[in-house]
Fold:
Amino acid sequence: MEIYYGHPSRERIVGNIYKGQVEDVLPGMGSAFVDVGESRSLFLSQNELNDRLLTERGFKPWQGTVAINKVLKPGQMLTLQVRREGIGEKNPQGTTKISIPGRFWVYLPTEDRLGVSRRIDNVRDQRKIRKTARAIKRPGEGMIARTAAQWASQAELEQDHRLLVETWESVQAAAKGTSSPRLLYKGMGLVQSILRDRLDPGTKEVLVDSPFFHEKILSFLDYIGMSEYRDRIRVHRGKESMFDAHRIEDQIQESLSRRVPLSGGGSIVIDETEALIAIDVNTGGDVRHRNQQAAILNTNLEAATEIARQLRLRQISGIIIVDFVDMDDPKDVQTVIDRVKEELKKDRVSADFVDMTGLGLVEITRKRRGESLADMLENADFDA
Structure:
């Protein structure tokens, strides 16, 4: 369903917190560039200035957008975090809206708000978690409950919050102790963050292809208090490599193909352009249904499911336009739209059905989180 690459020669910087120095302020673009001591400066949009920073500068953020040159000046020092890796020639993006993820909470030291993961859909669990958050959070800080919070005890939720507060306090202390750009906090590596974020009671198995790495993962789980998952971390056994045994390489190649076959005989064709992603749905030799209307509905439903999967697998983002096979019955149209909405809800990245145009095209948006799979593989400088 998803694939992530870690590049040995390109260290992951998303989540890192820096003390930075403003280099340039571009009021016409509503942005600034901040030197953080890395090879490339961070791009900072005026939308990424937190309310506390604006208030400290004498502005009332709730009254509207404040021009960035009114808040930042060249040479000014500030604390900010990397929210997105650089893509191609574009600089990494920064934010002063700091967020520090833990096992059960995402801690927001500069934003006074509460939130609950949309994956926690039980109303009773939501109320219990919000009550706990109100009891333990300090004035002026925010907290978002992660999915794993629904299985945590009161003591575990409180302990996770304490650790996050201590982490932020250490970041602040480090920031006060330096007058030049430097790293204050390093986010977790790719593997560690996936383990922290994805391991839950529904996880059946984590397969590893190295006994050495297996031990490292077990040590990491012990360190972050997730020892109960040790028995689910297993080493791949067999003459074939793990990727060969599970057809990983074949599936990667399929995910880069323009045409994706559907089990019923139809297909979808994916074209990536600068402005948007265009996806065309084609019928095929569907012989399982007696009439054309049923065959078209089946093809469109299969396509709706596969399109949502391809968006996740290929890490496609932005504006997506889908041309489903024309349907005469409005009930069939609504059935397909419902399937699209249902499948998009499974996405960990914000992805939403927008509308169906007058020409019958379905509009979808998906939040950008980094390079697409094609870009990652194209820019990779190591053997997969």
The domain at 100-185 is CATH 3.30.230 (Ribosomal Protein S5; domain 2). The CA atoms of residues 104 and 146 lie 5 Å apart. The chain is about 30% helix and 20% strand.
